Amino acid sequence: MKRPRRSSTAGLSLLELLLAAALLAILLQKGISLMQQTARQTNEESAAVLLEERAQLVLERIARAVMGSDRDTLIPDHAEPLSTDDIEYRIHLGVQDGEVVWSDPEAIGLEDVDNSVFWMRMPEDAPEQRVTWTNLVRPFLEGELPNGMDDNGNGLIDEKGLSFTVDRNAVTIRLSLDRLTSDGRQITSTVETTVTCRNLSEEDLDT
Amino acid sequence: MEVVVSLPIVLVAAMILLTTFTAIYRQRSLTRENARVVEAMRSRFEAMRNEPFENIVRLYNADPMDDPGGPGTAPGERFPVNGVQPRPDTPDGGVGRIRLPIMNAAEEGELPVWELREDLVDAQLGFPRDIDGNGLVDEADHSFDYRILPILLEAEWQGELGPRTFRMFTVMTDFRL
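ok -> structure tokens follow
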């Protein structure tokens, strides 16, 4: 008995079609999975970078304020291992009739209620002005727990999410921000800088 | 036929998208690394500003024996940079280094004698140059009478895109002189 010959114009057999479809499905699934993974990774990376940029921006604002302040007006004056979560200062505006002209007192600090960093100007004869720079501050600096010990090894004990330490004319500022990503994962960014007060008194200059 | 044609198109599109994602990721990593290094360098400059000008060389050179507070008490020439990986070939695992115009003036075979010299040849630091303000470049040690101090901060690290180097230069002086 002669087997029927397959015509040259015949299409794919059912088995070939099924195999091709299965391969295609596997390839597409892998491709989609890879795309999703990459997109998720990129989103997470973007969120981390944005958080770090925000932390750097706030740190830069604080650093500029401290640099422009007069060292003698900077309070409180805590050196390691003590730290503070707010500082108050005045800016030397110039000299008039032989007298130094000071700015109104200004303050930068951490508001515990909503974990925000605030800047405040406190004129004597006008309502105070207040600006919130960020509200993503961690209650305590990254790696630190409120247990009376130095958990993160930076020489400070139970430091808050925003902390200041003063060493002679230099102020070290540390800031930890955190936020949740769209898939509920927590990301944290910690930044630190040291700046020196540019305006010093005669006594400071002599030492 | 349609499937055969569309499949390569889909694959090429997916490849382009993935390449774009990867490029964005790498660019962000690069920016982040640079920002961290610049911040660490700025902090180091500020810490140096906070010291008496005449002590800066002894505090930030590589010699622990001349530290103003006693041997081994000064920060030295190395400084850390948080968040970046040191290069595997770095002997002490450090990232940042402070370069001052210092040279070893000892004879070969003798213990090193580190001197702050005007006749040092170092184009990156801008030497030779006068640093004690007498208008001359000489061969003396100016560790105790320098009036200006060129400083180069250098960071070498293993970045996402391979080995990276970043330098920042400044000249410090004591305005009270």
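Chain A has two helices and nine strands.
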